[in-house]
Design a protein that fits this description.
five-stranded antiparallel β-sheet, 2 helices
């Protein structure tokens, strides 16, 4: 009941945490790339993607951290994730020395437009000068397709660029001719 939940450590942890919205980007027309910035403290940060819809066969959406508003270009992203699929066996991936981390690689197929993507990225040490930045992410991608209806990623990324690199946000790139048609990205600071 309420009293027992209130006294549990999980309840206390969530009861003490707060979210402060830093930036919000709403997409209403065709775009293949974008940036959302505003990180200025070393508190953890959360990027939430909601109802991101592709216009055409733009299935691959990749993210990078930004430095002074520009995406990093070094191949220093070490990633590990599991690809959870409703239509076939799960797959595990571990890839060092990448130049990005992937939100989905099967967001849409030709003839199946209007597919949606939702995710939460929780990033740590973005403004640290003595620790690597790392993040956990959870993703669901609805393909609006009866043969491949739903998939999701659960994973993590660490950027081994330099412990002194300070990141201020995220950038994305989406393949395809017309890219992203709608949806929102919201950046939050997680307050202690």
């Amino acid at each position: 009941h309420y009293e027992s939940r209130k006294n549990s450590s999980l309840w206390v942890a969530w009861g003490l945490m707060g979210l402060k919205q830093i930036n919000k980007q709403t997409y209403t027309s065709s775009t293949n790339s974008g940036t959302i910035t505003g990180v200025s403290s070393n508190n953890p940060h959360m990027l939430v993607g909601h109802s991101l819809n592709n216009i055409d066969n733009a299935g691959v959406m990749d993210f990078k951290f930004t430095v002074s508003g520009s995406p990093t270009s070094a191949s220093t992203y070490d990633i590990a994730y599991i690809d959870l699929k409703a239509h076939e066996s799960f797959q595990k991936f571990g890839n060092p020395n990448q130049d990005m981390f992937r939100m989905t690689d099967d967001m849409g197929h030709a003839g199946n437009v209007g597919n949606s993507l939702n995710f939460v990225i929780t990033a740590f040490n973005m403004q640290s000068t003595d620790e690597y930045v790392f993040a956990n992410y959870e993703i669901t991608s609805n393909q609006n397709n009866t043969s491949k209806p739903l998939r999701g990623y659960q994973g993590a990324v660490v950027v081994t660029d330099s412990v002194s690199t300070q990141y201020d946000g995220f950038s994305f790139n989406l393949n395809g001719t017309n890219g992203l048609g709608s949806g929102t990205l919201t950046l939050y600071e997680i307050l202690p």
